[in-house]
Amino acid sequence: MLKYARGTEILTSQPFVYITEKERRGRICDFCFSGSENLRRCSRCKVLYFCGKKCQAAAWPDHKVECACLEKVSPEVPANPVRFFCRLLIKLKDTSAAAQTEPVFGRERSFAD
User: Fold this and answer.
1) Is the pLDDT of residue 68 over 90?
2) Which residue range is the domain that position 67 belongs to?
3) Angstrom distance (rounded) from CA 66 to CA 42
């Protein structure tokens, strides 16, 4: 068994799915999580907030389907667990996203494993 010193980083990974919690919405960017007083709200769903056009464009592949769904249920916003689960289902339906690999301890892993 490998031994690591306390505080040693042993794994870094990008999240497969994430949401910005309701309590932080409007205070942090939904893509990069930076806090700002000057966030721009998505003009379509009016739920998510972004630092600017760059973050909004980067988030668009994951937000596109969700955005249309949020627009349909407006002004209601689903609870955090529901939004998270919906994002997960949307991502899993996109087979190219589910098949993306990432090295983990010397092996290529994907969410589709």
Assistant:
1) yes
2) 22-100
3) 12
Cα 22 from Cα 112, distance rounded (Å): 29
Residue 29 or residue 1, greater confidence: 29
pTM (predicted TM-score): 0.80
Q: Residue 33 has which token pair?
A: 């999580």
Residue 51 lies in a domain: yes
CA dihedral 78, 79, 81, 82 (to 10 degrees): -20
Whether 109 is in a domain gets the answer: no
Chain segment 2-45, per-residue pLDDT in tens: 788 999 988 888 888 999 999 999 999 999 999 988 999 999 99
Quote the distance between the C-alpha of residue 96 and its chain's center: 16
How many folded domains does the chain comprise? 1
CA 70 to centroid of chain Cα atoms: 15
Residue 57 within any structural domain of the chain: yes
The token duo for 67 is: 């955005």
Task: Confirm if 61 and 31 have CB atoms less than 8 A apart.
Answer: no
> ω into residue 78 within 30 of 0, thus cis?
no
Q: Is residue 84 part of a domain?
A: yes
